[in-house]
Amino acid sequence: MRNAQQQRAMNLIFRNGRQLALAICLFGMLAVRAHAQAPGLGGSVELVDPKVLRVCADPRSMPFSDEAHEGFEDKLAELFAQKLGKTLSYTYYPRAIGFVRNTLNALKCDVVMGDAQGDDMVQTTNPYYHAFYVLVVPAGGGLGDVKSLEDPRLKGKHIGVIAGTPPATVMANNGLMGDARPFPLMVDTRVDAPSKSMIDEIISGSLDAGVLWGPIGGYYAKHASKPLTVIPLIQEHGVPMDFRISMGVRHSDQDWKRTLNRLISENQDAINKILIGYGVPIVDEEGKAITQ
């Protein structure tokens, strides 16, 4: 079981680079900054405009969100706006340091559509999906039945990995980093897309495999020019490789959180359908794949 400090450290990394992230480099931190207690709008009025679903989002973070509203979090926002009978608006800011401070806590928007459960910078709802890091390999290339980074067939293979993330630690523990191809963790997503670059190198043959956060690996594999196999890494030991993803609201917004929890519960099948449509490999509480 992860202790509370480990969980907070992992959530900090999730906030500061979700699409590349969940890095283990802060896993052993003994102190994490206390959460920002946003003033909100008081107990009786939590939303600036109750007729509008105001979403905090990254303008260029596929498959999660973008300014063209093409991400799966955009589709979830559209679903919830319809269910609530609200119009939809966005406040955009890169998902990096300062995201919550400059969006949600600045009262410019009212919900972050995707955040790790337990993130102390926001108040998280009940989770709406559970995902793992994944190993992405060429289909039919002899690695399609690998289940773990401990598999001896990965020795000597050129494997892409985002530097500083949990899989990098697992790979180091299994002697795989000598032949690995690290990609940067913290980038400006407006000009760089390391995850897509990793997939492109797998397709070209420069890499034998790659390890990515499941929603990203699944999405890019689904849209790759050659068939790729996506393997959830559910059998690793010692390092957290899975996260339950929730929505985030201000700490003061208790009624709003309950409303979102109700929407998640009532629309879970529709949520799963959207995720699966984007190639997101999601699992149930027993680790079994949800495919429909």
Structure report:
The protein is α/β, with parallel strands linked by helices. It folds into two domains: 4-129 and 243-290, D-Maltodextrin-Binding Protein, domain 2 (3-Layer(aba) Sandwich); 132-232, D-Maltodextrin-Binding Protein, domain 2, CATH 3.40.190. Helix content is 28%, strand content 22%. It has eight helices and 14 strands. It has helices at 4-16, 72-84, 99-102, 166-173, 194-204, 214-222, 254-266, 268-277, and strands at 52-57, 60-61, 65-66, 87-92, 111-116, 123-124, 129-138, 159-162, 181-183, 209-213, 228-232, 242-249, 282-283, 289-290. Strands 1, 4, 5, 6, 7, 8, 9, 10, 11 and 12 form a ten-stranded mixed sheet that branches. Strands 2-3 form a two-stranded antiparallel ribbon. The longest helix has 13 residues, at 4-16. It starts with a helix and ends with a strand. The relative contact order is 0.20. Residues 12-17 and 19-44 have low confidence and may be disordered.
Distance linking N and C termini: 30 Å
Oligomer: single chain
Measured as a percent range, the helix fraction is: 25-40%
Structural class: alpha/beta
Specify the CATH architecture of the largest domain.
3-Layer(aba) Sandwich
Summary, kept brief:
This protein has helices spanning 4-16, 72-84, 99-102, 166-173, 194-204, 214-222, 254-266, 268-277, and strands at 52-57, 60-61, 65-66, 87-92, 111-116, 123-124, 129-138, 159-162, 181-183, 209-213, 228-232, 242-249, 282-283, 289-290. It is an alpha/beta fold and 292 residues long.
